[in-house]
Amino acid sequence: MLNTPHDLDTATLDDLKRLVLSLVEEVGRLRADNAGLREEVARLKGLPAKPKLKPSGMEKKTERTEVKRRRKQKRRGAKGLDAKVTETRVIAAPAPAGARFKGYQDFLVQELSVSRRVILLRRERWLLADGSLLVAPLPAGIGGHFGPDLQRFVLAQYHQGQTTVERLVGLLNAVGIDISKRQVVRLLIADKRAFVAEADAVLTAGLETARWVTVDDTGARHAAQNQTCTQIGDDRFAWFRTRPSKSRLNFLDLLQAGNRAYTINPAALAYMRGRGLAPVRIEALRCNGELTFADEAAWLAFAAGLGIVETTGSAVDPLRIATEGALWGALAERGLVQDTVFVSDGAGQFAIGRHARCWVHMERLIHTLDAFADWQRVAKERIRARVWWLYADIKAWREQPTAGRRRALAARFDAIFTTRTGFATLDRLMARIHADRADLLRVLDHPDIPLHTNGSENDIRCQVTRRKISGGTHSDDGRTARDTMLGLLKTCRKLGISFWDYLGCRLGVPGTPHIPSLADILRQPAAV
């Protein structure tokens, strides 16, 4: 409701200014509402969707000149073949009489052989003296009617090739493989416990050795419901998991990497204190000493015995805060993430421990702000120019950090985001950004952390692509298998390991090179 003066002729200048600002904000709100209605009408009519706003490009525009020059000098040329020769053919030339032989000119050709092989395994049977029957065991790697090489092909095509089940069935049938859609689905999701265990071990090893991780999430469909897929990773590993919730409690549970323990220790109590849990509750937990609960049921029973139960309609739910603290305590007990910096886009569920906020997402708020007058657009662009300049200087400072320059950058941040332009919406946005000063300037304490979450957005794009291609998953096993294999695929790519060789090693394909545990590779000093 607008606060309109009763008599505009007698209104003061300040009253008129407040009225104009409120009218501008109201017009902006109405325009946003109308834009939403127009998009909904266009969707119902089947009209083309509104084009998305082009990104601001702050990250690329603030790169140093020599970095840009190196990128421009990089050209795509002829790629030399560094392949092991498996076959040699001599091509005769129709030389006329009197010609002299001068050796050979080598020409490498890579070829692929795709063919069906049907193997009949005749297993000997022996009747023992006690009347039992002894049957020869299946060879290593054979667990069903489809061999390990075929299983590898199915997994690689579906996850790395991003194909669909229907097209995969069609391709296999065209080659001559007698396989149905249900059998392909079974190869994709059945008996993946070893892969799930390795993926969880990758997350644990990554959190043990990571100085920082970036996190992000995206929507996912499962069992005809909207859920959320969360990504956790750095420049060495990636891990995905899809859950119905995207809360901070869910994120802390995901960090456990399958270890559902709850621990009350000083780290847990400090977390609860920081989240505003009542001191009487914290004291009741502290008096019982350090305790660890193996599962959720044991923890909830203990909390209920202390009178810590769920409270609906309250700003602070004591059970939720205490449970978050117990999960944080379990992470501290295992030596995980206590010194790790979490870099996120600013979503509240990721704000735990040492948290840093993405500068690209912060600047995007200014970039997408609607301005309705020329002076508003000028004010917005002036602020953006100052932010870009500061961002470029912080990137340069990270390479040679000094204490004096650090103080100067922090002072410039305060000067920018305490500026008042007279554009009310922009000024309120600047105040909100300045309130996140500690998270945005975390880089000044940890120069090695990234300033953005581009890595997470690149990682999670494979989940978005899979969602667009295949929709959602139906079974819990299918959801877990998809998240697990995509995480292992991304981890192999970051570590420079062939995903094809990795699958062959894990599935027991003969002749495949040995690939050590990915978790062990992450723990090696060279990988840190």
Secondary-structure topology with pairs:
Blueprint: H1 13-45, H2 58-61, H3 65-73, E1 125-127, E2 133-135, H4 148-160, H5 165-175, H6 181-189, H7 193-209, E3 212-222, E4 225-233, E5 238-243, H8 248-254, E6 262-264, H9 266-274, H10 279-286, E7 291-293, H11 296-305, H12 318-333, E8 341-344, E9 354-357, H13 359-367, H14 374-399, H15 403-417, H16 424-435, H17 437-440, H18 454-470, H19 476-495, H20 499-507, H21 518-523
Parallel strand pairs: 3-8, 8-9
Antiparallel strand pairs: 1-2, 3-4, 4-5, 6-7
Helix pairs in contact: 4-20, 7-19, 8-12, 9-10, 9-12, 13-14, 14-15, 15-16
How does this structure look, described?
The chain is α/β, with parallel strands linked by helices and 528 residues long. The protein has helices spanning 13-45, 58-61, 65-73, 148-160, 165-175, 181-189, 193-209, 248-254, 266-274, 279-286, 296-305, 318-333, 359-367, 374-399, 403-417, 424-435, 437-440, 454-470, 476-495, 499-507, 518-523; strands at 125-127, 133-135, 212-222, 225-233, 238-243, 262-264, 291-293, 341-344, 354-357. A 5-stranded mixed beta sheet has the order 5-4-3-8-9, with helices on both faces. A hairpin with a 4-residue loop joins strand 4 (225-233) and strand 5 (238-243). Helix 7 (193-209) packs across helix 19. It starts with 12 loop residues before the first helix and ends in a 5-residue tail after the last helix. 26% of the residues are buried.
